């Protein structure tokens, strides 16, 4: 056998198409030498590399990550593999949630999927009877507006109680907002991005527990595991639009998601 192989022979030896081999070369992943006539020539030891590149591509690894992987030492490579595994597991979970939603769509077209972006939230603690937190929202909203802080969304997160409810009420604000001059802030949180199942709620606020139960039952029926508590999500100038959100999958920004 000759020391080098033509692209046709190399393609047969690896099972990788000639067009894919040319693409790997154009992306600086695989480097054949050129004969005097300009033909690509591959060496025996490039077979393993070509198969590795093909396998990583089939696993959904981005070109830029493969380029980096091929240049790194074994320690860095092992860490990259761990990161890829974590990313693929997350994608698998997101696909599983999406599939279960689609399978249930005809049975319950009220519940929908929502990808909630990261958001900075200012939280206050309040106590009231179920469905009676309107005054607390209005008071805190006025405090923020007096400081010229724009509000994107309103939130309520249950803490404890049954007849008298203790809850956090929160307001989504811009990331660059400095929170000064506010009284009784409970916490400031950067809410992580997540995939949620969501239920629009239009019934009387005094019966909102039924909405919680409906969303929880939907999750149980379709095998969805909550990734956090149910949150009331308010929008509109007067917070007139309300949906109940249940996170079912966290979404992390990792290298290689593109």
From TrEMBL:
PROSITE patterns in UniProt: HTH_MERR_2 (PS50937)
Domain HTH merR-type residues, every copy = 1-72
Q: What UniProt keywords apply to this chain's record, in alphabetical order?
A: DNA-binding, Repressor, Transcription, Transcription regulation
The entry lists its GO molecular-function terms as: DNA binding; DNA-binding transcription factor activity
- Listed Gene3D superfamilies: 1.10.1660.10, Regulatory factor, effector binding domain
Please name the Pfam families in this protein's record: MerR_1
InterPro entries, alphabetized: DNA-bd_dom_put_sf, MerR-type_HTH_dom, MerR_fam, Reg_factor_effector_dom_sf
Q: What is this protein called?
A: HTH merR-type domain-containing protein
């Amino acid at each position: 056998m000759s020391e080098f192989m033509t692209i046709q022979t190399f393609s047969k030896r690896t099972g990788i198409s000639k067009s894919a081999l040319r693409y790997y070369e154009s992306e600086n992943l695989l480097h054949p030498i050129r004969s005097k006539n300009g033909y690509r020539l591959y060496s025996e030891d490039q077979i393993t590399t070509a198969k590795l590149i093909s396998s990583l591509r089939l696993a959904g690894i981005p070109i830029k990550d493969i380029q980096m992987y091929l240049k790194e030492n074994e320690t860095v490579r092992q860490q990259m593999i761990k990161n890829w595994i974590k990313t693929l597991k997350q994608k698998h979970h997101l696909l599983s949630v999406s599939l279960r939603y689609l399978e249930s769509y005809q049975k319950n077209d009220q519940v929908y999927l929502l990808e909630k972006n990261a958001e900075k939230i200012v939280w206050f603690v309040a106590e009231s009877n179920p469905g009676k937190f309107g005054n607390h929202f209005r008071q805190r909203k006025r405090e923020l507006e007096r400081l010229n802080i724009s509000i994107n969304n309103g939130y309520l997160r249950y803490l404890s109680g049954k007849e008298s409810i203790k809850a956090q009420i929160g307001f989504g604000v811009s990331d660059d907002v400095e929170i000064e001059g506010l009284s009784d802030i409970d916490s400031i949180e950067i809410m992580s991005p997540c995939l949620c199942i969501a239920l629009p709620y239009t019934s009387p606020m005094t019966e909102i527990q039924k909405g919680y139960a409906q969303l929880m039952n939907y999750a149980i029926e379709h095998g969805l595991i909550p990734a956090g508590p149910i949150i009331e999500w308010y929008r509109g100038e007067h917070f007139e639009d309300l949906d109940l959100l249940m996170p079912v999958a966290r979404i992390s920004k990792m290298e290689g998601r593109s």
